């Protein structure tokens, strides 16, 4: 009797494994010779260039500006490190042998030409929303780039997360295919499709899927904190549509500071070719996501926040105030009623108001180049300041410029970011 039960259980396990393998299996698509540039019109290629920018393809698939789209960029995750792939038309290390069918399957279903499942760090969960015409144009652009022979490093994911076949189960749980409803606005189409904005601005659950019910609530991603874009944002001033347009078009906003870190790439490399109409459409969409303010509300909120910070700061005589006055105030002090776009006010900035201090620490240590932030304006780094001085500065800003609780373990976090940057020195 016991023998029959054991045999039955083993048979059931084998049957389940067979079913799972059948569900996970995807066939390969036959390779083809790389297409010629003559196979595409210049109009297609030009449209594809704009779409690749909106999708921010170059930022994620480039480590060397002289080798665009050749992949190799590391993405640190809770499961190990992933490296972006080579998406140039090189036939050996890139996608040169990919047909349109293979390209579209990867974009919409997260399956490589050879049938292997792609990890969701590649945001096919969003690209599933991209139209046929846009995919055609994007394919034309990618297949007319310089073919670069470059093999990215092997992923170093921990077992069992390294098993690509398990991604089939992940897709059953978290991938719904195209999610946009008919009649979606242009801004929603761009943001939730190629733009894949929530991929960075939405927290992830324990298995790496965007967390339900927390859309655009902010998330830590690849070394930066992507602030909340929902009405759960931490800043004292709500976004207006015009401020969103300014920020996405020029990388700077009067009430929200500058686009820096990975967002600088999105604005200054990705969206730079997008039309004003598309930038306005994105601004309009995110204005609704953020619960939107109008210009008068934003002005009043900003004046109140700046004035409060200045009143709290007056005469504190702390080490943090000394450091702020010495190193920061000349560029960050404002008239509350007329804040300048050239002088981002710290009381309005998500780097100071967010629950995670990573961005403030990194901006202070590394500075902001003239290629990020405000074009042509540089913020110097202060890596030579001691950890103790940086803690004093950050505690002063947090206490006087926000209503938020103090950050924990600031000194350890500063040292950890120094170590990651390769200058472990205090």
* Measured distance between first and last alpha carbons: 70 Å
Shape: globular
Give the C-alpha Rg. 24 Å
Give the % helix: 40-55%
Number of helices: 19
Major sheet: arrangement of strands: 1-2-3
Can you describe what's shown?
By secondary structure, the protein is mainly alpha-helical. Helix content is 44%, strand content 5%. It has helices spanning 2-24, 42-54, 57-60, 100-109, 124-127, 132-142, 167-174, 186-192, 198-201, 241-250, 262-270, 276-289, 295-313, 319-327, 329-332, 350-353, 358-366, 387-401, 410-421, and strands at 74-77, 80-83, 156-157, 219-221, 224-226, 252-253, 257-258. The strands form three sheets. Strands 1-2-3 form a three-stranded antiparallel β-sheet, with no helix packed on it. Strands 4-5 form a two-stranded antiparallel sheet. It has a two-stranded antiparallel sheet with strand order 6-7. Strand 4 (219-221) and strand 5 (224-226) form a beta hairpin. Helix 8 (186-192) packs across helix 12 (276-289), helix 10 (241-250) packs across helix 12 (276-289) and helix 13 (295-313) crosses helix 18. It starts with a helix and ends in a 5-residue tail after the last helix. The mean pLDDT is 93.
């Amino acid at each position: 009797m016991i023998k029959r039960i054991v045999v039955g259980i083993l048979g059931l396990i084998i049957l389940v494994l067979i079913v799972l393998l059948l569900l996970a299996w995807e066939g390969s698509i036959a390779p083809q010779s790389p297409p010629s540039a003559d196979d595409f019109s210049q109009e297609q290629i030009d449209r594809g260039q704009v779409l690749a920018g909106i999708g921010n393809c170059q930022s994620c698939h480039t480590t060397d500006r002289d080798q665009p789209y050749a992949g190799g960029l590391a993405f640190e995750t809770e499961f190990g490190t992933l490296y972006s792939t080579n998406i140039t038309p090189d036939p050996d290390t890139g996608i040169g042998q990919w047909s349109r069918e293979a390209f579209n399957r990867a974009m919409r279903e997260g399956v490589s030409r050879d049938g292997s499942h792609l990890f969701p760090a590649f945001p096919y969960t969003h690209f599933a929303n991209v139209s046929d015409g846009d995919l055609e144009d994007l394919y034309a652009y990618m297949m007319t780039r310089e073919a670069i022979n470059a093999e990215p490093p092997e992923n170093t994911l921990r077992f069992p997360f390294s098993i690509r076949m398990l991604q089939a189960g992940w897709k059953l749980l978290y991938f719904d295919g195209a999610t946009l409803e008919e009649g979606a606005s242009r801004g929603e189409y761009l943001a939730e499709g190629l733009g894949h904005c929530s991929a960075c601005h939405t927290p992830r659950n324990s298995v790496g899927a965007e967390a339900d019910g927390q859309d655009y609530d902010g998330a830590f991603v690849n070394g930066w904190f992507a602030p909340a874009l929902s009405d759960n944002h931490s800043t004292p001033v709500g976004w207006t549509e015009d401020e969103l347009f300014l920020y996405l078009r020029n990388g700077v906003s009067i009430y929200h500071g500058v686009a820096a870190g990975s967002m600088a790439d999105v604005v200054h490399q990705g969206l730079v070719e997008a039309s004003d109409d598309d930038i306005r459409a994105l601004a309009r969409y995110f204005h609704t996501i953020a619960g939107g303010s109008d210009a008068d509300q934003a002005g009043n909120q900003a004046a109140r926040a700046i004035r409060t910070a200045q009143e709290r700061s007056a005469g504190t005589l702390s080490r943090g105030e000394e450091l702020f006055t010495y190193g920061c105030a000349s560029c960050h002090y404002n008239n509350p009623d007329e804040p300048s776009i050239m002088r981002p006010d710290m009381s309005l900035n998500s780097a100071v108001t967010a629950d995670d201090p990573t961005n403030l620490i990194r901006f202070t240590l590394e500075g902001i180049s003239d290629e990020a932030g405000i074009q042509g304006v540089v913020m110097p780094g202060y890596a030579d300041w001691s950890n103790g001085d940086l803690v004093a500065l950050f505690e002063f800003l947090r206490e006087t410029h926000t209503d938020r609780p103090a950050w924990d373990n600031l000194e350890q976090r500063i040292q950890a970011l120094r170590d990651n940057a390769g200058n472990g020195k205090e």
